[in-house]
Inverse folding.
């Protein structure tokens, strides 16, 4: 891994250069809420933030996305859109980068979703978390505030400079194009980075005990515990919208006259309509069924199918839940359930 | 022959259907629980020639502007000029489809799912136990077996519906039973004037027919409650968990294991199913 420094005052120039070649997505301040948005000027970037409200999945699995358009008049035509251009996501957190590695399992495979091509066309420039939120627990889910495993280039703010780790070939290509802006990292830079990294690690106070959780859940599917956990859930689905690994979607047709489009939109397993059959039968009729399914999907089904827990410890679900359902608490209590 | 000009262009993605023209529409059941069979062929001849599937596999059928539904193919793979799906008028998309006529264009993508293990069942006696709108995948299987007759043993077709009016593929069954090596056992739930065959539920008809489990597999498709009792009765008749197969249904959108909703535990019915042995079913945790 190549280690370099980039003067902070040179970041805008770096982004400026990138804008010539890439669609650049970065955290922006939207009336106090930090969201990923396509930028046209480096000044729109907002890098002094804890995390975005909506995760980076929204770039590759848009909340609303046209799968194809159609027209049915004298002739019937179906046209699918080209996958968009080369994209650079600047300033995403390690947890969001990790979540994309998890979503790769879903969208790749035998049927290659448009996500896959977008992902291949996307370069991730990560930004180390120096001030984690009180809800953060990424160190429990295989990541960490400075984890560079899932990004192409990782930046760490070490004062006047960014400490730059070039992780992948994609990252190498990107930095080489602006090589004049980078200088080799000195030992002092590395020391500073390590020191800040440790501080950030220690600032994460919450811990989820995930070892053996898939096996434990295997035993307690029928437990009344799930009814208890679901009691206070409102079924609002906020947790699923802000979750970086929730990927469920619906497909709907929109029409105007003889023209139309098949659109995919984010859906949520927390809604009863999500699973209801045309016959009226619903395999998950109660909130208990739906809450349990969401927990199992992340901590039992995903481990069984892909050998990975589908939680990156970003804390968003905990933060947005209007009734304080806390996934750490759910998992910790599940571990103590005796049948 | 396609009469409407059609085109499918752009960057391919797995949600883009191919276009197909409806060749013929057959009324299977008329009235309240209407069922129609749609015979169609792909507008692009190359697509039609390349399309292969196994009995039990499904396709996503689009009524453009309304949406998509997953249906088991009810025609046999041995019919290469066309495909068929048999559809009960029930929800939004199926109601629109029922208004479609020959010449109309539908979207079709697939085939999806695992299908029946017809290769593994070679040399065995086959018993199909169907109820109501559960028969379409079994119909595909039955014709596949009849078109590969020497590969399989005795064929017993057990099928029932609420009333004689609700029986799909009626004429076909009457024709079938005239053939050698296939026995057809039809039933209706309640007595009707002029009905001389079995009266009662499908699981009871199964007990009355009492097929031997010797070198046999039984495949059952129908409403969940029927499947439940058919399996109980098959076990009573001495069938083992590995000799019993069924198909499961779930609400589906993508059909390729990505949209999330058709899971039973960690199994996605769209891509891992829809065919499961009873041995597999027993091990599956999760809501159905």
């Amino acid at each position: 891994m190549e280690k370099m420094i980039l003067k902070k005052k040179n970041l805008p120039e770096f982004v400026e250069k990138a804008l010539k070649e890439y669609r650049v997505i970065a955290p922006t301040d939207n009336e106090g809420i930090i969201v990923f948005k396509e930028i046209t000027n480096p000044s729109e970037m907002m890098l002094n933030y804890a995390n975005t409200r909506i995760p980076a999945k929204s770039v590759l699995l848009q909340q609303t996305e046209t799968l194809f358009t159609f027209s049915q008049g004298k002739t019937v035509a179906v046209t699918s859109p080209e996958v968009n251009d080369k994209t650079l996501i600047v300033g995403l957190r390690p947890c969001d980068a990790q979540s994309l590695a998890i979503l790769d399992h879903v969208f790749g495979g035998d049927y290659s979703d448009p996500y896959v091509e977008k992902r291949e066309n996307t370069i991730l420039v990560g930004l180390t978390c120096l001030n984690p939120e009180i809800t953060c627990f990424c160190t429990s889910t295989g990541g960490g505030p400075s984890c560079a495993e899932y990004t192409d280039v990782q930046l760490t703010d070490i004062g006047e400079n960014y400490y730059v780790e070039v992780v992948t070939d994609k990252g190498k290509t990107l930095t080489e194009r602006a090589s004049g802006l980078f200088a080799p990292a000195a030992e002092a830079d590395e020391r500073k980075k390590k020191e800040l990294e440790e501080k950030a690690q220690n600032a994460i106070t919450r811990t989820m005990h995930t070892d053996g959780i898939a096996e434990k859940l295997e035993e307690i599917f029928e437990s009344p515990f799930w009814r208890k956990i679901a009691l206070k859930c409102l079924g609002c689905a906020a947790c699923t919208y802000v979750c970086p690994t929730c990927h469920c979607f619906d497909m709907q047709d929109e029409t105007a006259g003889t023209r139309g489009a098949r659109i995919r939109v984010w859906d949520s397993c927390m809604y009863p309509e999500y699973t209801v059959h045309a016959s009226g039968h619903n395999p998950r009729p109660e909130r208990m069924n739906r809450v349990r399914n969401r927990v199992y999907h992340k901590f039992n089904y995903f481990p069984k199918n892909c050998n990975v827990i589908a939680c990156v410890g970003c804390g968003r679900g905990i933060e947005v839940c209007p009734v304080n359902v806390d996934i750490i608490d759910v998992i910790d209590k599940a571990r103590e359930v005796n049948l | 022959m396609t009469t409407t000009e059609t085109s499918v262009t752009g960057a391919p993605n797995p949600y883009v259907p191919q276009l197909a023209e409806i060749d013929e529409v057959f009324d299977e059941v008329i009235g309240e629980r209407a069922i129609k069979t749609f015979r169609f062929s792909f507008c692009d001849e190359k697509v039609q020639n390349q399309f292969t599937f196994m009995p039990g596999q499904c396709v996503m059928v689009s009524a453009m502007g309304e949406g998509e539904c997953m249906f088991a193919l009810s025609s046999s793979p041995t019919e290469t000029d066309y495909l068929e799906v048999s559809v009960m008028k029930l929800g939004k998309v199926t109601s629109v489809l029922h208004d479609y006529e020959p010449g109309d264009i539908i979207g079709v993508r697939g085939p999806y799912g695992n299908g029946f293990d017809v290769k593994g069942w070679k040399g065995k006696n086959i018993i199909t136990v169907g109820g109501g709108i559960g028969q379409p995948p079994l119909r595909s299987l039955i014709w596949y077996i009849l078109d590969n007759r020497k590969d399989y043993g005795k064929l017993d077709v057990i099928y029932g519906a609420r009333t004689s009016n609700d029986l799909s593929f009626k004429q076909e069954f009457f024709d079938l039973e005239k053939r050698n090596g296939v026995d057809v056992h039809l039933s209706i739930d309640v007595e009707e004037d002029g009905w001389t065959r079995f009266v009662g539920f499908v699981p009871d008809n199964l007990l009355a027919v009492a097929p031997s489990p010797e070198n046999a597999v039984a495949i059952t498709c129908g409403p969940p409650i029927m499947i439940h009792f058919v399996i109980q009765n098959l076990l009573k008749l001495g069938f083992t968990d590995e000799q019993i197969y069924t198909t499961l249904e779930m609400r589906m959108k993508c059909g390729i294991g990505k949209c999330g909703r058709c899971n039973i535990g960690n199994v996605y019915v769209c891509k891992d199913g829809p065919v499961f042995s009873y041995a597999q079913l027993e091990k599956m945790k999760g809501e159905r």
Observations:
- The longest strand of chain A covers residues 64-72.
